[in-house]
Amino acid sequence: LSATVIQRSVWALLLWPSLLTVSMPLDCKEEQGSLSGCTSISQEKLLDRVIHHAELIYRVSEESCSLFEEMFLPFPLQLQSSQAGYACITKALPMPSSKSEIQQISDKWLLHSVLMLVQSWIEPLVYLQTTMDRYDHAPDMLLNKTKWVSDKLISLEQGVVVLIKKMLDEGMLATTYSEQGLFQSDVQPEMLESVMRDYTLLSCFKKDAHKMETFLKLLKCRQTDKYNCP
Amino acid sequence: MMKKFGEVILLLLLLSFVPHAEVTRYSLPGKPALTRCRSPEKETFTCWWEPGSDGGLPTTYALYYRKENSEMVYECPDYHTAGKNSCFFNKNDTSIWVNYNITVVASNALGSTFSDPVDIDVVYIVKPNPPEKVAVTVMEDKGWPFLRVSWEPPHKADTRSGWITLIYELRVKLEGENEWEMHLAGQQKMFNIFSLRSGGRYLVQVRCKPDHGFWSEWSSASHIKVPDYFHRERSVWILITVFFAFIFLIVSWCIHINSHSLKHCILPPVPGPKIRGFDKQLLKNGKSEDIFSALVVSDFPPTSSSNYEDLLVEYLEVYIPEEQELILEESKDLQDGCLKPKGSTFDSDSGRGSCDSHTLLMDKCGEAKDDGRQTDQDGTQTGSEAQRQQAAWEQEALTYAHEDMISPDMSSGRVKTWPSVFSPLPQYSLSPLNQPSSLETAKQHCLSDSLFPPSSLSSYLTQPGQSTKEALRSSCSDFCSSNKQPLLLHPQPDARHQLQARSDVSISSISHKEAPAGLQLPTVRSTEYVEVHTVNEEDMVLLHPVPSGHSHGKGCLQTHQGEDYSKVNGVDKNNVLLLQREVMEEQVDMCPCENQDANGATESYCTSSAQKSIPCIHTALPVQEEKAVNGYVDTATMFPLPIH
What we know:
The structure holds two protein chains of two kinds. Chain A is mostly helical. Helices cover about 65% and strands about 0% of the residues of chain A. Chain A has seven helices and no strands. Chain A has a domain at about 40-75 and about 100-170 and about 205-230: Up-down Bundle (Growth Hormone, Chain: A), CATH 1.20.1250.10. Chain B has 14 helices and 21 strands. In chain B, the strands form seven sheets. In chain B, strands 3, 4, 6, 7 and 8 form a five-stranded antiparallel β-sheet that branches. A four-stranded antiparallel β-sheet of chain B has the order 12-11-14-15, with no helix packed on it. Chain B has a three-stranded antiparallel β-sheet with strand order 1-2-5, with no helix packed on it. The longest helix of chain B is centred in the middle third of the chain and has 28 residues, at about 230-255. Chain B: It comes from Amphiprion percula (Orange clownfish).
């Protein structure tokens, strides 16, 4: 017992700074006599902002995808993009795929789904930026958009974490960056292969962004009107 | 034989039938193709295909689909709901965010044909129904109407829960026009349209689109009529019209007020000649005597001048030979070439344009002189000729010295001209062809039309012997009739006033400031000079004879010897100054006026002119008798002021 206690205390001590970094901005006491003095945001407003974020992310990702299609993808391949060997990375994640299915999912699960999606896309987007830089004639707009999306996704993640904490009273840790990505490879891929992979990445992200947006909107509906919402 | 023949015929018949049999060949069905798949609300969707040729046999079509991540192939659950050649997927069969791989198969008895597979994701094929319940109303905003359009999303689309987010667009146009005006309304369900035409009929349509799909069809057109707010526009126009009319009135009134000054600005008055006392009517009547008499100024010569200092001007001795005199006579242009002494008072009646300024006067007279030359009908003298003659004259002047007609200083004796007029003629001097016993002061009243051109003088000088009176034309400078021309003739060897009064000279002017020194007359015994003493208050030129001459100091010239052309006879009708040749014995009494004049103390001219002016013109001799032999010329009588 003492060993586990010591272990846990050590863990707590080690993890103490990270807890602070995550929770400090959120540690504004909503009750009177708060020490930090920061104004807290209401749950509705927070949800609205998160939804707005998701909407923007989806719109920009859609634009990036169509830009990429125009620039790099030969026409015949556009039709076969889904048949290509590149499946979406989030294929494994269990997601509802219809309105009726979503209706059966709880709020908590909805939020967690969103968080999962967000967290799983942060790194691939960073990777995408590096690969895009390798292209010779990638337009600046495309690069700017992907960069923007990547940044916004991080803030979306933070928002969802706060939302989870507020709505579900759960504390969670945000994703920590790791320099090593899953996609880094020393071998320079072939151009076409790289293009196909990147295109798949973009289109999958676009779809997932739409999922996030939809989930969050449904969540909002449920907050206001529990019975008529899916 | 017969059998073979029959077989051949049968074969032929069979062959003939073969083509007919080929018409009814059957084949595999043609390849169908999926044309489109649409989902109206992201919960169900429909796919349509286009069949190919059926191959002559009854063909059936089947649609098979496969979801991504699964190898299960399913067939279309509903072939009928959406019509022919369609497949309808209901809610249970519809999954979003999932790729469907759909294929259509056409089959007939002979076989089946597969279409090309198509991948779709329901999320991306959403095409909603048009918005519903489009309502357009006219509303007013401070008197200006606008349209308010409101609508509802299609009832199938679940926008309330956020399942679908729709954005709307509407378009407006006037009835009868072709151009639509588009407005993007975003996610709102209401929109205001401004800038309407009064009384216009408008059509409004709305459509919608999800953020990831296709535009819907336009809703059915809603008609609306905007009421007339014509009166408001009219009032604005009325206001504008009144405003501009007001401004116009003000502007026209200003112009009217300043019409005179404007007229002066735009159309400056052209100066015209004006001679006091000149009556056009008389001229038209043709009675020259009347005209001339009318022009005679009663108070000329100036006998009383309050400020006769002002009248003192420089003198000009001008020579005009015969030819030139002719020229000058006929020049009719210079009616206003007048001499005005510096500072003399101007007659208000005179032609201002030419006499207003000294320089103008100079120019005018200079022009007149030129005109006189050019209008010379004789055409004898030209400008260049005049110049030559002038040069010649100067030379001649020198030659004349021995003839004692010319003062030694004549050549150098630049007779100073009237500053205002005769500055271009400074080198005139008088050649005393005759004894200038008689004052030629009367010449100042010569009213020839032109001035003495230098050429005339020079040419005149070349003919020293010329003595005819007629030859001596009184081409004299014009005077403003009203002007009292003081003529200072100082024949005495006065440093200040030097005069060379020539008998033939019509005008002599001597600068009273400068000394044409050397005009020594004493050597010229025969020449008598008259000296203009002063001009008294009444603008009368007071003359007294040269000391060498007669002792008669009364202003009567002495008798003269020899041929003396110093006396001005008169001015004939051609404005010719008639000089009389006098002989010694002739005592042309020029003092009759003096007799008349009770004032003997002063040397004065007779100022009365009116009664004597006219007779002077006609004849020379009578004039001769009249005129004082002393050299004084009753200018008033001698020279009425006619103007040709």
